[in-house]
Structure to design on (246 residues):
């Protein structure tokens, strides 16, 4: 991981933008790491736990498997996977997130942590039986390259699960969701987060992210097969699944 190059002074906070410069995004996540999980639970009205359980069921981890959990943050999703007995690598490009994850979950024998850039993964070809990324692909500056890298490190016949914010298909619900994101979420984030500006960026990144069909096409273009998705919480989130050809 390279040293952060964004110029800041004491008291300043990192605020990434849709250019998604890796140093700025990583620095932003470093700052929110201690309160990140609690803030997400508050802002998602508790749905983050439901989404995590759905993601774990889709990955279907088993003892003896090796699983890569990308954009793992503090490792909450990784712990859920590791409970199956699988060997889980929790990877994130934020040193602050990794440090917080090790502090919280470093005693779990089959869970390890690694700093990793999703566009240049430090793992061997075909190393993992499954790879998953939750709410992190849209923060990568080249998500198509990341999907190709995930294919490279997955064993033939292995699986990918991408859990990401998406676009509700119902116009009425989309309007309600937009009102919450634009008017309510910033107020709540200011009250509960250590860096409310970070959640302004995250809100922008959700609006800018493509719909379910577009992400599915990116996965196919990267070489994944049997691509499918299902919506969670009326399409606020979509769970994409695919396999690497045997």
């Amino acid at each position: 991981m390279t040293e952060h190059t964004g110029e800041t002074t004491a008291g300043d906070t990192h605020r990434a933008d849709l250019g998604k410069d890796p140093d700025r995004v990583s620095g932003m996540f470093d700052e929110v790491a201690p309160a990140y999980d609690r803030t997400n639970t508050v802002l998602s009205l508790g749905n983050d736990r439901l989404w995590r359980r759905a993601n774990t069921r889709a990955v279907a981890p088993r003892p003896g498997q090796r699983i890569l959990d990308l954009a793992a943050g503090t490792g909450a999703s990784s712990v859920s996977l590791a409970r199956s007995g699988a060997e889980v690598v929790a990877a994130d490009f934020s040193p602050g997130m990794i440090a917080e994850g090790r502090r919280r979950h470093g005693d779990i024998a089959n869970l390890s942590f690694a700093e990793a850039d999703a566009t240049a993964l430090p793992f061997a070809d075909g190393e993992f039986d499954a790879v998953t990324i939750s709410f992190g692909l849209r923060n990568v500056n080249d998500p198509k390259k990341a999907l190709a890298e995930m294919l490279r490190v997955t064993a033939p016949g292995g699986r990918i699960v991408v859990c990401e914010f998406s676009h509700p298909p119902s116009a009425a619900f989309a309007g309600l969701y937009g009102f919450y994101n634009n008017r309510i979420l910033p107020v709540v984030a200011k009250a509960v987060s250590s860096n409310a500006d970070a959640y302004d960026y995250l809100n922008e990144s959700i609006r800018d992210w493509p719909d379910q069909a577009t992400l599915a096409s990116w996965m196919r273009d990267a070489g994944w097969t049997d691509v499918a998705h299902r919506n969670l919480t009326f399409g606020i989130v979509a769970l994409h699944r695919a396999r690497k050809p045997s």
About this structure: The beta strands are 66-70, 87-92, 111-115, 128-134, 154-165, 225-232, 237-243. The two ends are 33 Å apart (CA to CA). The chain has one domain: 22-243.
